[in-house]
Protein backbone atom coordinates (compact mmCIF):
# COMPACT_ATOMS: atom_id res chain seq x y z
CA UNK A 1 0.00 0.00 0.00
CA UNK A 2 1.35 3.44 -0.92
CA UNK A 3 1.58 5.92 1.97
CA UNK A 4 -0.83 8.82 1.37
CA UNK A 5 0.77 12.21 1.95
CA UNK A 6 0.30 15.96 1.63
CA UNK A 7 3.52 17.92 1.15
CA UNK A 8 3.58 21.49 2.50
CA UNK A 9 6.54 23.42 1.10
CA UNK A 10 8.20 26.66 -0.04
CA UNK A 11 10.21 25.68 -3.17
CA UNK A 12 13.14 26.62 -2.73
CA UNK A 13 15.91 24.44 -4.09
CA UNK A 14 15.83 21.75 -1.43
CA UNK A 15 12.01 21.66 -1.43
CA UNK A 16 12.19 21.18 -5.21
CA UNK A 17 14.61 18.27 -4.78
CA UNK A 18 12.35 16.85 -2.05
CA UNK A 19 9.37 17.03 -4.42
CA UNK A 20 11.34 15.22 -7.16
CA UNK A 21 12.21 12.54 -4.60
CA UNK A 22 8.62 12.15 -3.37
CA UNK A 23 7.08 12.21 -6.85
CA UNK A 24 9.52 9.56 -8.08
CA UNK A 25 8.94 7.30 -5.09
CA UNK A 26 6.84 4.15 -5.55
CA UNK A 27 6.14 4.17 -1.82
CA UNK A 28 4.21 7.46 -1.77
CA UNK A 29 0.86 8.67 -3.10
CA UNK A 30 1.10 12.45 -3.08
CA UNK A 31 -2.51 13.62 -2.69
CA UNK A 32 -1.62 17.29 -3.06
CA UNK A 33 0.99 19.97 -2.52
CA UNK A 34 0.32 23.02 -0.36
CA UNK A 35 2.42 26.15 -0.65
CA UNK A 36 3.48 28.75 1.90
CA UNK A 37 5.59 31.87 1.51
CA UNK A 38 9.09 31.23 2.81
CA UNK A 39 12.28 30.92 0.79
CA UNK A 40 10.71 33.17 -1.85
CA UNK A 41 7.22 34.69 -2.29
CA UNK A 42 4.13 32.49 -2.34
CA UNK A 43 3.42 32.61 -6.08
CA UNK A 44 7.00 31.93 -7.08
CA UNK A 45 7.00 28.92 -4.74
CA UNK A 46 3.79 27.74 -6.44
CA UNK A 47 5.25 28.15 -9.93
CA UNK A 48 8.34 26.17 -8.84
CA UNK A 49 6.20 23.35 -7.48
CA UNK A 50 4.45 23.19 -10.88
CA UNK A 51 7.88 22.76 -12.52
CA UNK A 52 8.62 19.77 -10.28
CA UNK A 53 5.26 18.23 -11.21
CA UNK A 54 5.87 18.79 -14.94
CA UNK A 55 9.36 17.24 -14.77
CA UNK A 56 7.94 14.08 -13.15
CA UNK A 57 4.78 13.87 -15.31
CA UNK A 58 2.71 14.53 -12.20
CA UNK A 59 0.64 17.56 -13.25
CA UNK A 60 -2.50 15.64 -12.23
CA UNK A 61 -1.53 16.31 -8.61
CA UNK A 62 -3.19 19.51 -7.31
CA UNK A 63 -1.29 22.46 -5.85
CA UNK A 64 -2.94 24.81 -3.35
CA UNK A 65 -1.54 28.19 -2.39
CA UNK A 66 -1.77 29.06 1.31
CA UNK A 67 -0.37 31.86 3.43
CA UNK A 68 1.95 34.42 1.91
CA UNK A 69 3.34 35.44 5.30
CA UNK A 70 3.73 34.19 8.88
CA UNK A 71 0.97 34.41 11.51
CA UNK A 72 2.29 37.65 13.05
CA UNK A 73 5.78 38.40 11.73
CA UNK A 74 6.74 39.97 8.41
CA UNK A 75 7.97 37.37 5.90
CA UNK A 76 11.76 37.15 5.84
CA UNK A 77 12.73 35.32 2.65
CA UNK A 78 15.97 33.46 1.78
CA UNK A 79 16.73 34.65 -1.75
CA UNK A 80 20.43 34.73 -0.86
CA UNK A 81 20.24 30.95 -0.46
CA UNK A 82 17.76 29.98 -3.18
CA UNK A 83 18.03 32.82 -5.72
CA UNK A 84 15.37 35.39 -6.65
CA UNK A 85 13.45 32.73 -8.61
CA UNK A 86 13.76 30.20 -5.77
CA UNK A 87 15.67 27.77 -8.01
CA UNK A 88 19.19 29.16 -8.06
CA UNK A 89 18.39 31.87 -10.65
CA UNK A 90 18.09 29.17 -13.33
CA UNK A 91 14.86 30.83 -14.47
CA UNK A 92 13.40 27.53 -15.69
CA UNK A 93 10.50 28.10 -18.10
CA UNK A 94 7.09 28.64 -16.47
CA UNK A 95 4.75 25.66 -16.82
CA UNK A 96 2.23 26.44 -19.60
CA UNK A 97 -1.39 26.25 -18.40
CA UNK A 98 -0.21 25.23 -14.92
CA UNK A 99 -2.98 25.48 -12.32
CA UNK A 100 -2.43 26.99 -8.88
CA UNK A 101 -5.50 26.66 -6.68
CA UNK A 102 -6.21 28.71 -3.57
CA UNK A 103 -7.22 27.36 -0.17
CA UNK A 104 -4.34 25.28 1.18
CA UNK A 105 -5.92 25.06 4.63
CA UNK A 106 -9.27 23.87 3.28
CA UNK A 107 -7.53 21.29 1.11
CA UNK A 108 -5.65 19.94 4.13
CA UNK A 109 -8.84 19.84 6.27
CA UNK A 110 -10.99 18.21 3.58
CA UNK A 111 -8.32 15.66 2.65
CA UNK A 112 -7.87 14.64 6.29
CA UNK A 113 -11.65 14.32 6.78
CA UNK A 114 -12.20 12.35 3.57
CA UNK A 115 -9.27 9.92 3.61
CA UNK A 116 -7.85 7.39 6.07
CA UNK A 117 -4.18 7.38 7.14
CA UNK A 118 -3.05 10.59 5.47
CA UNK A 119 0.28 12.00 6.62
CA UNK A 120 1.79 15.45 6.21
CA UNK A 121 5.41 16.22 5.36
CA UNK A 122 6.07 19.89 6.16
CA UNK A 123 9.16 21.41 4.54
CA UNK A 124 8.60 25.09 5.30
CA UNK A 125 7.37 27.56 7.92
CA UNK A 126 4.31 25.94 9.55
CA UNK A 127 1.84 28.78 8.92
CA UNK A 128 -0.52 26.72 6.70
CA UNK A 129 -0.61 23.87 9.20
CA UNK A 130 -1.23 26.15 12.18
CA UNK A 131 -4.06 27.95 10.37
CA UNK A 132 -5.63 24.62 9.34
CA UNK A 133 -5.61 23.39 12.96
CA UNK A 134 -7.11 26.72 14.12
CA UNK A 135 -9.86 26.32 11.50
CA UNK A 136 -10.75 22.66 12.20
CA UNK A 137 -8.75 20.79 14.84
CA UNK A 138 -11.02 17.73 14.52
CA UNK A 139 -9.65 17.04 11.02
CA UNK A 140 -6.27 16.24 12.55
CA UNK A 141 -7.66 13.35 14.61
CA UNK A 142 -7.46 11.46 11.31
CA UNK A 143 -3.84 12.45 10.71
CA UNK A 144 -1.46 9.52 10.43
CA UNK A 145 2.09 10.94 10.79
CA UNK A 146 3.56 14.44 10.76
CA UNK A 147 7.16 15.03 9.72
CA UNK A 148 8.56 18.56 9.84
CA UNK A 149 11.90 19.71 8.45
CA UNK A 150 12.80 22.44 10.90
CA UNK A 151 14.49 23.48 14.07
CA UNK A 152 17.74 22.41 15.60
CA UNK A 153 18.60 20.70 18.90
CA UNK A 154 22.37 20.82 19.35
CA UNK A 155 23.57 22.13 15.98
CA UNK A 156 24.03 25.90 15.48
CA UNK A 157 21.17 27.66 13.76
CA UNK A 158 21.23 28.77 10.13
CA UNK A 159 19.24 31.98 10.71
CA UNK A 160 20.44 33.05 14.15
CA UNK A 161 22.99 31.28 16.37
CA UNK A 162 20.17 29.17 17.82
CA UNK A 163 17.37 28.98 15.25
CA UNK A 164 16.68 27.34 11.91
CA UNK A 165 14.90 29.14 9.03
CA UNK A 166 11.47 27.43 9.04
CA UNK A 167 10.91 27.83 12.77
CA UNK A 168 12.51 31.29 12.86
CA UNK A 169 10.34 32.68 10.04
CA UNK A 170 7.16 31.67 11.88
CA UNK A 171 7.92 30.72 15.51
CA UNK A 172 4.29 31.26 16.53
CA UNK A 173 3.08 28.72 13.97
CA UNK A 174 5.76 26.17 14.91
CA UNK A 175 4.92 26.52 18.60
CA UNK A 176 1.17 26.35 17.92
CA UNK A 177 1.53 23.16 15.86
CA UNK A 178 3.64 21.51 18.56
CA UNK A 179 1.02 22.38 21.19
CA UNK A 180 -2.16 21.69 19.18
CA UNK A 181 -1.52 19.04 16.52
CA UNK A 182 -2.47 16.25 18.89
CA UNK A 183 0.21 13.94 17.39
CA UNK A 184 3.98 13.83 17.81
CA UNK A 185 5.90 16.07 15.41
CA UNK A 186 8.85 14.15 13.95
CA UNK A 187 11.40 16.99 13.83
CA UNK A 188 14.05 16.57 11.11
CA UNK A 189 16.30 19.42 12.17
CA UNK A 190 19.78 20.63 11.35
CA UNK A 191 21.25 17.99 13.68
CA UNK A 192 20.57 15.42 10.96
CA UNK A 193 20.23 17.45 7.77
CA UNK A 194 23.69 19.00 8.16
CA UNK A 195 25.05 15.47 7.78
CA UNK A 196 23.38 14.98 4.38
CA UNK A 197 25.54 16.93 1.93
CA UNK A 198 25.05 16.52 -1.81
CA UNK A 199 28.71 16.80 -2.87
CA UNK A 200 30.00 18.03 -6.25
CA UNK A 201 31.09 14.43 -6.87
CA UNK A 202 27.52 13.22 -6.43
CA UNK A 203 26.18 15.98 -8.68
CA UNK A 204 28.80 15.08 -11.31
CA UNK A 205 27.76 11.42 -11.03
CA UNK A 206 24.11 12.43 -11.51
CA UNK A 207 25.17 14.52 -14.55
CA UNK A 208 27.28 11.70 -16.05
CA UNK A 209 24.51 9.13 -15.70
CA UNK A 210 22.44 11.69 -17.62
CA UNK A 211 18.97 10.84 -16.40
CA UNK A 212 15.91 12.91 -17.26
CA UNK A 213 16.38 15.03 -14.10
CA UNK A 214 20.18 15.28 -14.21
CA UNK A 215 20.39 18.63 -15.97
CA UNK A 216 17.98 20.43 -13.65
CA UNK A 217 19.59 18.92 -10.54
CA UNK A 218 23.07 20.04 -11.56
CA UNK A 219 21.82 23.51 -12.58
CA UNK A 220 19.85 24.32 -9.42
CA UNK A 221 22.46 22.94 -7.00
CA UNK A 222 25.23 25.20 -8.41
CA UNK A 223 23.85 28.37 -6.76
CA UNK A 224 23.00 26.41 -3.59
CA UNK A 225 26.53 25.04 -3.30
CA UNK A 226 28.01 28.54 -3.72
CA UNK A 227 25.89 29.69 -0.77
CA UNK A 228 27.08 26.81 1.45
CA UNK A 229 30.72 27.54 0.60
CA UNK A 230 30.22 31.20 1.60
CA UNK A 231 28.10 30.35 4.65
CA UNK A 232 30.02 27.48 6.22
CA UNK A 233 32.88 26.46 3.90
CA UNK A 234 30.91 23.31 3.02
CA UNK A 235 31.84 21.81 -0.37
CA UNK A 236 28.42 20.80 -1.70
CA UNK A 237 24.91 21.59 -0.53
CA UNK A 238 23.05 20.59 2.62
CA UNK A 239 19.83 19.07 1.30
CA UNK A 240 17.51 19.64 4.26
CA UNK A 241 14.04 18.94 2.87
CA UNK A 242 14.77 15.71 0.94
CA UNK A 243 15.85 14.07 4.21
CA UNK A 244 12.38 14.68 5.67
CA UNK A 245 10.89 12.80 2.69
CA UNK A 246 13.54 10.07 2.92
CA UNK A 247 12.85 9.60 6.63
CA UNK A 248 9.08 9.49 6.06
CA UNK A 249 9.61 6.73 3.48
CA UNK A 250 12.09 4.76 5.61
CA UNK A 251 12.16 5.60 9.34
CA UNK A 252 15.34 3.53 9.79
CA UNK A 253 17.30 6.35 8.11
CA UNK A 254 17.21 8.44 11.29
CA UNK A 255 17.24 7.82 15.03
CA UNK A 256 16.21 10.15 17.85
CA UNK A 257 14.20 10.47 21.05
CA UNK A 258 10.69 11.31 22.20
CA UNK A 259 10.34 14.47 24.27
CA UNK A 260 8.44 17.71 24.92
CA UNK A 261 9.42 20.64 22.70
CA UNK A 262 8.21 24.20 22.40
CA UNK A 263 9.46 27.13 20.35
CA UNK A 264 10.75 30.42 21.72
CA UNK A 265 8.52 33.05 20.11
CA UNK A 266 10.39 36.28 20.78
CA UNK A 267 13.62 37.85 21.94
CA UNK A 268 17.18 36.85 21.29
CA UNK A 269 16.33 33.14 21.04
CA UNK A 270 13.33 33.65 18.71
CA UNK A 271 12.68 30.45 16.76
CA UNK A 272 14.79 28.27 19.04
CA UNK A 273 13.60 24.75 19.90
CA UNK A 274 13.30 24.41 23.67
CA UNK A 275 13.78 20.64 24.02
CA UNK A 276 13.02 19.20 27.47
CA UNK A 277 15.17 16.09 26.93
CA UNK A 278 15.49 15.45 30.70
CA UNK A 279 11.72 15.79 31.20
CA UNK A 280 12.16 18.52 33.83
CA UNK A 281 8.77 20.05 33.05
CA UNK A 282 7.05 16.62 33.14
CA UNK A 283 4.93 17.57 30.10
CA UNK A 284 3.34 15.10 27.65
CA UNK A 285 5.74 14.33 24.82
CA UNK A 286 4.72 16.15 21.60
CA UNK A 287 7.77 15.51 19.45
CA UNK A 288 10.45 13.14 18.29
CA UNK A 289 13.80 14.88 17.84
CA UNK A 290 15.91 13.11 15.21
CA UNK A 291 19.61 13.31 16.05
CA UNK A 292 21.35 10.54 14.06
CA UNK A 293 21.20 9.74 10.36
CA UNK A 294 22.55 7.01 8.11
CA UNK A 295 23.64 9.60 5.54
CA UNK A 296 25.02 7.05 3.09
CA UNK A 297 21.80 5.03 3.10
CA UNK A 298 19.76 8.20 2.54
CA UNK A 299 21.97 9.67 -0.19
CA UNK A 300 22.00 6.36 -2.08
CA UNK A 301 18.17 6.28 -1.94
CA UNK A 302 18.03 9.94 -3.00
CA UNK A 303 20.34 9.46 -5.99
CA UNK A 304 18.58 6.25 -7.02
CA UNK A 305 15.20 7.95 -7.03
CA UNK A 306 16.43 11.04 -8.88
CA UNK A 307 17.86 8.71 -11.53
CA UNK A 308 14.92 6.30 -11.52
CA UNK A 309 14.98 6.18 -15.34
CA UNK A 310 18.59 4.92 -15.26
CA UNK A 311 18.23 2.25 -12.59
CA UNK A 312 20.64 -0.31 -14.08
CA UNK A 313 23.50 2.14 -14.63
CA UNK A 314 23.08 3.61 -11.14
CA UNK A 315 23.11 0.11 -9.63
CA UNK A 316 26.28 -0.65 -11.57
CA UNK A 317 28.26 2.53 -10.76
CA UNK A 318 26.93 4.08 -7.52
CA UNK A 319 29.69 2.25 -5.65
CA UNK A 320 32.09 4.80 -7.17
CA UNK A 321 30.57 7.40 -4.82
CA UNK A 322 30.64 5.62 -1.46
O1 LIG B 1 16.52 25.64 7.23
C1 LIG B 1 16.27 24.93 6.05
C2 LIG B 1 14.83 25.02 5.68
O2 LIG B 1 14.48 26.36 5.41
C3 LIG B 1 14.51 24.26 4.38
O3 LIG B 1 13.17 23.83 4.42
C4 LIG B 1 14.71 25.30 3.33
O4 LIG B 1 13.94 25.03 2.16
C5 LIG B 1 14.14 26.50 4.02
O5 LIG B 1 12.72 26.48 3.86
CA1 LIG C 1 11.72 24.43 2.59
**Biggest β-sheet: strands ordered side by side in the sheet:** 4-3-2-1-5-6-7-13-10
Strand segment tally: 13
Q: Name the helicity range.
A: 25-40%
Assign the CATH superfamily: Ribonucleoside hydrolase-like
How many structural domains can be distinguished in the coordinates? 1
Q: According to CATH, what is the class? A: Alpha Beta
Radius of gyration: 18 Å
Distance between the termini: 31 Å
The whole-number mean of residue pLDDT values reads 97
The CATH architecture can be given as: Alpha-Beta Complex
Oligomer: single chain
CATH topological fold name: Inosine-uridine Nucleoside N-ribohydrolase, Chain A
Which ions and ligands are bound to the chains?
alpha-D-ribofuranose, calcium ion
Structural class by helix and strand composition: alpha/beta
The helix-strand sequence is EHEHEHEHEHEHHEHEHHEHEEEEHH
The major beta sheet can be summarized as: 9 strands, mixed
Low-confidence stretches: none
Beta fraction of the residues?
15-25%
Organism: Clostridium senegalense
GO molecular function, one term: purine nucleosidase activity
GO biological process, one term: purine nucleoside catabolic process
Domain Inosine/uridine-preferring nucleoside hydrolase: 5-299
Outline of the structure:
With 322 residues, the protein is an alpha/beta fold. The protein has helices at residues 13-23, 42-55, 79-82, 104-114, 127-135, 165-169, 171-180, 190-193, 200-209, 214-232, 240-249, 295-306, 311-317, and strands at residues 3-9, 28-35, 63-65, 101-102, 118-122, 143-149, 185-188, 197-198, 237-238, 254-259, 261-263, 273-275, 287-293.
